[in-house]
Amino acid sequence: MRISTNQIYDQNVRAIMDNQTGLVNTQQQLATGKRINSPSDDPVGAAKVLRIAEELDSLDQYQRNIDLFTNALEQQEAVLTNITNSVNRARTLIVQSGSGILTDTDRASIGSELEQIRQEVFDLMNTQDADGHYIYAGFQSGNQAFTYNPSATGNSVTFAGDGGTNFMKLSNSASIQSTTSGLEVFENVLARYDFTVTGNTVTDLESAIIKEQGTFDTFFDRNYDSGTAANNNYQITILATGQAELRNTGTGAVVDTVNFTSGEPFVVKGLSFTADAAVGDTIDFSLDAPEKKSIAQALDEMTNILMDSTVEGSQLQESIADALINIDNGLEKISIERASIGGRLNVAQSLYESNLDLEISAKAARSSIEDVDYAEASTEFARQETALNAALASFPQVANLSLFNYI
Q: Which of 110, 130, 244, 274, by CA, is between 20 and 30 Å from 171?
């Protein structure tokens, strides 16, 4: 095969350029520490590196989300702790107000302090986060969660938000609840179960009160019928056997029978009655519909009771019992929410550590694909440099080959 002079020149120039290109690429790898500096270096590897980079960006965002999530829950925990401390103080004051040795002035002083606690609790229920959002307003976080109107015909403290619950994505597979609506934490609190005497034929009904709240609550839970109002009506009948029979007038079922002495208190299903009655006399009562009331509302009502000097005796004691049970139920709700916050914080911490492990694994995978092996690259650089030097040195020798040198 004959090789022309042009072919010799072209081939040598191409060889020199190829060696220079390889040398420059290897030098760039050594300078940047990266085996892949452009997609053309390794198209498949470059695509994998891009996917890993996207994964690392996601993990970085999840870690920032966890920081925000943790800060939000810690703020909620602080709010609930402060409310609990204030309400426990209020509970102590309410118990104290029931003392028979206190004057109207003393009770008014307690009522004044309760009013300050109510305002503090109300403000805490309307806590805002760093962005100015009301944390207990649900999806209506731009508006105040609770409003106070002392002249309202119903409850003076009302919920103005909604039941929305916010979630935050903390990993590819985990979205954790970041807020709980005030409707669930503060508003959805059962008030004291109660009953109403609707009629009687006795000579004198001296008292009708809840004597054993726990027993009555159990009876109420098992028997209250939200669907049929008539089944919540009961009648006590004085029997010739010296007993009082409790019967459901809606179903006709006899519920209980207890001993009875006229003029002496008797207790049936936690309810205490004192009546002057004869055989055949009856006492009718009905179970009141369950109500829900926030702690702030309960404190406001108790404040008004203590400020009213005309409220005393059994009416005062019943009001105190109502307030204490409402407060205890409210504190139980808050305790449940605090436990939930603690659980979510633990999950967030676990996800943070898992994301760190995933980040380390992803970076190791990226490094194995993208990073240069310095020993290998240095050896390759030396080889390419030698090849380039050889090409440069041999080209003049080849270029000098000509038949004219032998003429």
A: 130
pTM of the model: 0.79
Q: How is residue 284 written in tokens?
A: 């009718």
Tokens of 301: 């009502």
Is 236 in contact with 244 (CB distance < 8 Å)? Answer: yes
The C-alpha atoms of residue 201 and residue 281 are separated, in whole angstroms, by 5
pLDDT digits 0-9 by tens, 336-349: 999 999 999 999 99
Residue-wise DSSP of 101-120: T--HHHHHHHHHHHHHHHHH
The conformation of residue 289, written as its DSSP 8-state character, comes to: P
Which residues 6+ apart lie within 8 Å of 25 measured at CB? Answer: 37, 41
Listed by start position, the domains of the chain span 1-33+374-407, 55-191+295-356, 195-287
Asked: is 55-191+295-356 a CATH 3.90.650.10 domain? The reply is no
Separation of alpha carbons 371 and 365, rounded Å: 10
d(CA 168, CA 62): 9
Per-residue DSSP letter, 287:
E
Instruction: Please name the amino acid found at residue 133.
Output: H
